[in-house]
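Try this one yourself first.
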């Protein structure tokens, strides 16, 4: 049986993840043991490998022995946590993605100017938590859905500026923004008014191929915002079957009968070797016609 397999581009690590991964490997080589409070990148398999190499995960920076090395994740960390780390004289390695860093800087600037800040995002996500920290949690509000918007206070004539978590569905952001503008007509955008380029390109690639496939496989961890959004985008685009897998182990339970065309994509935190393993797994079982789709919308950083 032959299956056409579209390999979507881009896939694999985004630039922020490449940077963090290179850093953590160098730091492990130098120091042997490195503490983290949040996964450096949101990929379960990669983090397990790092634990074998010397990464120790703790629940809070207070638990880390004084003077040890700590690495903060690509999603960013709040300045309050950095303060604690400095007081403990930890050797700080900051893996924050430069894009997230520039959002943090702008949030801080707006907060210092006493503007109200709205972050469109998930309040439990590390990136959003870090942004709230830069806004010093005063006059900053997180909204994810219409109910959150209903609960916002009346801003009257206050200056209000919005930011967006980098890994949401960009069409969903547009929808929420429309609702926000109804409630707060004076709201204005920041320089970071929508998702990052790496997120958008992956979503666009799925939207382009959706009508030509009967299955989309997203390789990524279930706690990766990026990966979850790719699944939602595929479903919203009309793909009948969408699976999110950490590795081929999870795919073994998936019924691939009657599938004639598959699109394969991955979260921005998925190691390339997992994509290769999936292709090999499929190649061993099916007559696979592989089509490598180039990125048609490479807007760069
Ligand atoms: S998804 Fe975007 S913001 Fe997040 S780490 Fe990658 S490049 Fe940076």
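Now uncover the answer:
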């Amino acid at each position: 049986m032959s299956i056409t397999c579209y390999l979507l581009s881009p896939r694999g690590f985004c630039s922020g993840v490449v940077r963090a991964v290179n850093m953590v490997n160098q730091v492990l080589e130098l120091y042997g043991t490195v503490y983290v409070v949040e996964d450096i990148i949101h990929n379960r398999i990669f983090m397990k490998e790092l634990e074998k190499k010397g990464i120790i995960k703790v629940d809070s920076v207070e638990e880390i022995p004084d003077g040890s090395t700590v690495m903060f994740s690509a999603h960013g960390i709040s300045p309050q946590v950095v303060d604690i780390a400095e007081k403990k004289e930890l050797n700080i390695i900051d893996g924050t993605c430069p894009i997230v860093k520039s959002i943090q800087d702008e949030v801080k600037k707006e907060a210092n100017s006493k503007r109200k800040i709205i972050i469109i995002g998930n309040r439990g996500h590390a990136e959003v938590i870090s942004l709230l920290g830069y806004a010093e949690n005063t006059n900053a509000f997180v909204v994810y859905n219409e109910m959150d918007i209903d609960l916002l206070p009346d801003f009257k004539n206050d200056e209000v500026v919005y930011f967006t978590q980098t890994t949401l569905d960009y069409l969903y952001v547009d929808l929420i923004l429309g609702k926000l503008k109804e409630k707060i007509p004076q709201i204005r955008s920041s320089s970071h008014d929508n998702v990052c380029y790496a997120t958008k390109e992956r979503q666009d690639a799925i939207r382009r191929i959706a009508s030509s496939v009967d299955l989309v496989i997203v390789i990524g961890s279930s706690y990766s915002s990026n990966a979850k959004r790719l699944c939602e985008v595929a479903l919203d685009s009309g793909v009948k079957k969408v699976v999110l897998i950490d590795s081929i182990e999870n795919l073994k339970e998936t019924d691939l009968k009657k599938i004639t065309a598959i699109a394969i994509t991955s979260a921005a935190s998925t190691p390339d070797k997992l994509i290769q393993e999936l292709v090999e797994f499929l190649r061993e079982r099916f007559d696979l016609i592989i089509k490598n789709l180039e990125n048609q919308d490479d807007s760069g950083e």
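Discussion: The pocket of iron/sulfur cluster is lined by residues 14-17, 74, 97, 99-100, 166-167, 196, 198-199, 268 (CB under 6 Å). The two ends are 41 Å apart (CA to CA).
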